[in-house]
Amino acid sequence: MAGINQCEDFMMFQRALKQLRELDDKIIYALNLSTPTQSMRARGASPQQSCQELQTNLSENYKYREEKISNCVGDLTVRIKDLKGKADKGDMDAMTNLRPTQHTLRLMKNELNVEEIIRDRSKSIFDTKCKEYL
C-alpha cells in the first residue's frame, strides 16, 4: 500500500487510511461472524477463537495505522523546521512551501484524533459482543 507511506500527498494518504479502516467500518459484520448462533456452535464454531482473532487483527491494524500517521507527523515536523530555517534566510521557495506543509501537518495530527475516536468506538462495540468469550 504505497499511499500510506506518502506523507506529502494527504489525499493519497487518506485514501490508504480509508482502506486500512475497513475492518473498523465493518466491525458489526465481523462481530456477527465471530459470535455464532447456538446452532452454529453445535456444529463446532468457536466464538472464543473467532473473537481472539478479531481482537488481534484490530490491535495490529491500530498499531500499524498509528505508526504510519506518527511517522508522517514526525517527517512533516522536520520538514517544517527545515523550511522555516530556509525561509528565515530569504529562500522564496521555502516561504511558498511552508504554509501548505504546515496545513498538511495539521491534517495529519487531526488523523491521530480520528484514530482515537475509531479505536474507542470499535472497542466499545467489540466489548459488547465478545467480552464474554475472552
Unreliable residue runs: none
Strand content: under 5%
Major beta sheet summary: none
What is the β-strand count?
Answer: 0
Describe the 3D structure.
With 134 residues, the protein is mainly alpha-helical. It has helices at 10-20, 22-25, 27-34, 38-42, 47-88, 92-130. The chain starts with 9 loop residues before the first helix and ends with a helix. The mean pLDDT is 88.
Could you give a quick summary of the protein structure above?
By secondary structure, the chain is mainly alpha-helical. The chain is built from six helices and no strands.
Write a concise keyword list for the protein shown above:
single chain; 134 residues; mainly alpha; 6 helices; 0% strand
Secondary structure elements and pairings:
Elements: H1 10-20, H2 22-25, H3 27-34, H4 38-42, H5 47-88, H6 92-130
Helix pairs in contact: 3-5, 3-6, 5-6
